[in-house]
Amino acid sequence: MWRFLIRKFSTSEMEFKVTEILKRFNTVDSSKITPTATFKEIGLDSLDSVEAIVAMEEILGVELSDEDAFKINTIQEAIKIFSKNSKN
């Protein structure tokens, strides 16, 4: 659907892509997006957070384990975990 070419992204590319994905959600306040912001702080409830992680998996071509997905609470954690799991 929105999938990019599957490859390893630099940290700055991953930060840009994660941020752009989050901005697509109607409830997100873009002005509050910072690396340390939690999904809740930018306007995502728990269901929106799950949907955002699934969207990131689809768009970035990265499938996370449930264990890794549950670790994501902030934008920085999403960037770190998706970067770690992206293909070389």
UniProtKB/TrEMBL annotation:
Database matches in PROSITE patterns: CARRIER, PHOSPHOPANTETHEINE
Main location: mitochondrion
Pfam family, one: PP-binding
Keyword Electron transport: yes
Protein role: Carrier of the growing fatty acid chain in fatty acid biosynthesis.
Domain (Carrier): residue spans on this chain: 12-86
Localization, UniProt: Mitochondrion
Protein name: Acyl carrier protein
